[in-house]
Amino acid sequence: MKKTNRCRLNRGMVSDKLPETLIRMPPEPVFVFGFHELVELELEIRHDVHDRQGIWVIQFLCCAPNLERLHIDLPVPHEGFKPPPLPEEVPSCLLFQLKEIKIRYFEGNEQMFEMISYFLSHGSVLEVLKVKIEEDEEYSNPSPLRNAIKLLELPRNSKKCRVVAYV
Hints:
Blueprint: E1 6-10, E2 13-15, E3 22-24, E4 40-44, H1 55-61, E5 69-73, H2 92-96, E6 100-106, H3 110-122, E7 128-133, H4 144-152, E8 162-166
Parallel strand pairs: 1-4, 4-5, 5-6, 6-7, 7-8
Antiparallel strand pairs: 2-3
């Protein structure tokens, strides 16, 4: 039986299976519900209002134990932003199910490097991590090649994992 359940998170709203079934996300990442049949999750967040810069993404993964594919598009943090530490409890999907992670907007900021490192160091069945590196001479990413090399040098838990960095 082919798993086809998908979820798209957009601007703080969650829709699982039916578009008319919407659940408002709480202001703090306290999840009392689960998405046990969810196998693909696409996150498109334009403004992280709680200044957690994606840390809640990893906390949300605890609610999706069978997730196999994760696509992320997060905003760039404001200057001087210091996120809370990444959670010590590793989501079970990252340990046993997650095979593909795609990050569509990466400017080389330290918070995203930390999150990518977390994914690679705990993703024991991860097969591919794709990262689209943005070119931005004016701001924080003058050298996409330098960031690509840094990504490729990150240690991986899965021996099968390929890291694909592209512009």
